[in-house]
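Pasting as-is:
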Amino acid sequence: MHRITLVLVLVVILISSSYAGDVKKADLAGSWYPSSKTILESSLKNYIERTGRISVDGDIFAVIIPHAGYQFSGPVAAYAFKAVAGRDIKTVVVIGFSHRNFFDGVSVYDRDSFATPLGDLPVDTLLAQDMISKSKRVSFYPQAFLGENSIEMALPFIKMVLPGAKIVPVVFGTSDFNDASILADALTASIGGKDGYLVVASTDLSHYHPYDEAVKIDKRTISVISRMNGRDLYDEAEAERCELCGVMPVTATLLAAEKMGYDKIKILDSENSGDTFGDKSRVVGYVSAAIYRDNKGPVTGISQKEADMLSELQKKRLLEIARESIVSFVKDGKRKAFLESDPALKGNLGAFVTLHEDGELRGCIGSMVGQGPLYKTVADMAIEAATGDPRFKRLSASELDKIDIEISVLSPLVRVKSYEDIKIPGHGVIVKKGFSSGVYLPQVATETGWNKEEFLTSLCGSKAGIKPDAWKDPATEMYIFTAEIFGEKDGAH
């Protein structure tokens, strides 16, 4: 009995010390990030300045950020906060999940303010209380915010880039999809159709895998996030086909984005602790992304500007990077490092690398969405096409002079409401229904001579493994993209 009383007293003391005068103290300052205002300010400015120019041409609804110690995830988180810096945002809803104090439901902080070494961040108590009023599953549970890095690591960045903004911290207690849906409904009811609000979804990606394994897992997870389907992400994470600790914050944010008409995502940066801190034996993955919509309204097609993305010199350089990557890896087992300064080669675009030998396909691997600088994606996909395509044996050193390389640089994905919005030839297409999906690059229609019906029927039936006429079903998700296709046979090397 005395032991139980002592524990309760210690909990009360901990809560009281963390919530003096309804100002939540900065529990992690001095450990996860600097407690000195001068040092912290300098560190954040350095992270932000190192991101270079970031452009998201549209109305940003939310950003996805990591939440590890700044020495690990700060350089990646900076991309998201750079994207919203200076925007007219009055309240930031920060959504995290409880690492330490598990509880049933969702906790929304509705008290005075949170302290940071850069100054206090006031809570938008009216918005917080309005969100709480939407469901019995939503309440204020103070222990949820004690030492909670999924919330606290966002706050100094917010104070830096949006110094006049208020906040509403939100923490999930369990991983129940219904709670994600409830919070999405609450967000939609409270801020839908209103200007001046930003949602921050807090998550890290894979945890403690070797570097190369983590990269593959994180690419898969980012690909799923990029589909912009909250239910899909939740199901994939539950089935352990992708890995992210903040599945609840991201799921709720994607659900709310769909309800409010935000239909685009831009991956701003993706790295892991091996990239930012150096130890590649056991790494944690990070991503920064922006969820937004075009200021001009829903997109139903792809512009010519998106289709013509690269100059001849830029194409030539990407082909050089692809070949040098393959040669280095096949001969020496090493990934050659590149450092490119051309902004076009550093953009976040998807790409496929295709190998041919004596006119026959010898390997083809790609990434549909940008997951980092384009030149790195090309280097990675070139190695995968040479050594990781399960349809072919690994490329040997004796074949290096026999292959020719083709690169397809992809425009951002655009979801279409109907097959009538698809142009064949012209567009590449992804179809998805349930857990099944398939993709054809734009050149497939040209090479086969298929019309639209033949193209989509083959894509659904042969590639995705769903009903051949599923492209007529409104429940089938379809995404279009264009590809800028160039190769060594074109004389660009």
